[in-house]
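Supplementary notes for students who missed Thursday's class. We covered one full example, reproduced here. Read the sequence, then the structure, then the short commentary at the end.
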Amino acid sequence: MTSDLEATTDDLLNTIRELWQRAQGGDELAPPEGFGQAVTSIKDTDIAEATGLDLDPVREYLDNADGTQLVVGRDGDTRTVQGLL
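Structure (token representation):
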């Protein structure tokens, strides 16, 4: 049986993947080889809006997923998803 927390984190990751795909303009989760600096980051505020979650839990999730599921950039309190792992 899946807990509410696991279901929520799974939904959050799936939403981030969908936002990532749309932002990169393609159907693949990873940008094409040599895509380089043209990668479009996903803002924490966009993720919160898409999921209906408050910003603090989204940022906490991004902090915990950094380096294991996502590449997350930080600028002060702001987080951006810069890549999927």
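Commentary. The first helix runs from residue 4 to 24. The radius of gyration is 13 Å. If anything here is unclear, bring it to office hours.
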